[in-house]
Amino acid sequence: MNLLKFSTDCRSLVRLVHENSNLEFPEYSSFLLRLKTFGSYPTRSRQAKYSLAECGFTYTGADDLVQCHYCGILLGKWEENDEVWHQHSMHNPECVFVLLYKGAQFIENFKNEFDDIRNNRGNSNDQVHRCKTESYDVVG
């Protein structure tokens, strides 16, 4: 293990957390509190509420639209094969919640994998980029 690289990465992460320490919704910092927001989550949804809550999301009350308690990103229109951590990191690779739980290497690896798939399919985002970020006025 390269301790110099580790300490540099650690310092970068600490700096990033410090600079982005303003949680959008700090009242949902707990997994259980996020999970409670899924009380009316559609049973026909393609993503499990437990996975969504684990990945930092709360349910907005509209369709299958969820919002990250940390960065505030809204994601919806989930497909069956969408992997929640991948979608979160793809749509906001700078979310500190994703960085803290999965690490910068996870985001970098997924980004490289996504770029490879996109390049191999002739830059067609229809096949790769299924989950969409949405713009909604969410009251609640």
UniProtKB/TrEMBL annotation:
SMART domains: BIR (SM00238)
Protein name as catalogued: Death-associated inhibitor of apoptosis 1-like
InterPro entries per UniProt: BIR_rpt (IPR001370), IAP (IPR050784)
Gene3D superfamilies the record matches: Inhibitor Of Apoptosis Protein (2mihbC-IAP-1), Chain A
Residues spanning the membrane: none
Species in which this protein is naturally found: Aphis craccivora (Cowpea aphid)
Domain of life of the source: Eukaryota
Biological classification of the source: Eukaryota, Metazoa, Ecdysozoa, Arthropoda, Hexapoda
One Pfam family hit: BIR
A Gene Ontology cellular-component term: cytoplasm
